[in-house]
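Annotators were shown the component list below and the corresponding predicted structure, then asked to write short factual statements about the assembly.
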Amino acid sequence: MRILSGMRPTGHLHIGNLLGALDNWVRLQNEGNETYFFVADWHMLTTGYKDTSTLSQMTKVLVIEYLSAGIDPQKSVIFVQSAIKGHAELFLILSMITPLGRLERIPTYKEQLRELSDREITTFGFLGYPVLMASDILIYDADGVPVGEDQTYHLEFTREIAEKFNSLYGETLKIPKALFSQVPKLLGTDGRKMSKSYGNVINIDSNLKELKDKIMPMPTDPARIHRYDPGTPEKCNVWHYHLAFNTPKEKLDYIHEGCTKATIGCIECKKILIESMANKLGPIWEKIAYYKAHENEVEDIINDGNEKARKSAEETMKKVRKALNLSF
Ligand code: TRP
Ligand code: SF4
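Structure shown to annotators:
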């Protein structure tokens, strides 16, 4: 299968992005699919057009974090959206056949307008977000698009607009499927929804000290007021972190019994969690440090990926132009 996905360069990736998205991308890559992963920098402009001062830096950071999480440039095409001008050409063409009302009715559109009301995003570009996203996907003939549930409506729109294109101009575009990740959502360290704006996230670009600082104060099962009060692991966010970070079975059993019988304290439980997290994140930290010290290598990887993506995009664009009788 040809698989494609991307993220906006809005800041560092956190453990929610890692477990919910990137681990899944890496699995799809290693299962022998033809995988394309990109940085949606034009999409970042739809809401962040006012301050673009860190855009190129954030783009590089995102690629470094993709690579460090296990995206392998030997196996996947890693590229930057704005380097492939075909996305913009297809966006323009699809915009001709996209009814305004269809975009206005996408539930996340109104929601975001409300949530980001301070950003002045009643713009043509922001309304067109899904059209650009459809172009990202359709230009690579993607079969599957691993995305979060929040992108459901965008994928639905993509399929619909591709079908409309095909019915108007003949079978040209492949109809892609959304691939939703099966992993349950991890909450933030304070038990609320994980969100940068709550400050309850752990970035993958972190270190042991930061892990300790964020894990040790985590709220636990409120029933465990004293060390001798038994608790229910299932009611505790720390327990769910243990499951997400693959604490080994023997240790999980030890914690479960220790918590329910009050034979271990929350501090010990959290120390074991920090160990599990460091096991998973340690190799990522090392790679991040490596790529930060070798930015030239990152640039080479991006240039190489851009070139491959451009070729693939151009093949689709030739067919698209031909279908529309745009002959020059
Ligand atoms: N809209 C996606 C998000 O916010 C990012 C994105 C842009 C994307 N284009 C895409 C994801 C194409 C998958 C395929 O997460
Ligand atoms: Fe949570 Fe662990 Fe404390 Fe039980 S022992 S309440 S699972 S932190």
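Statements collected:
1. The first strand starts at residue 2 and ends at 7.
2. The CA atoms of residues 50 and 265 lie 49 Å apart.
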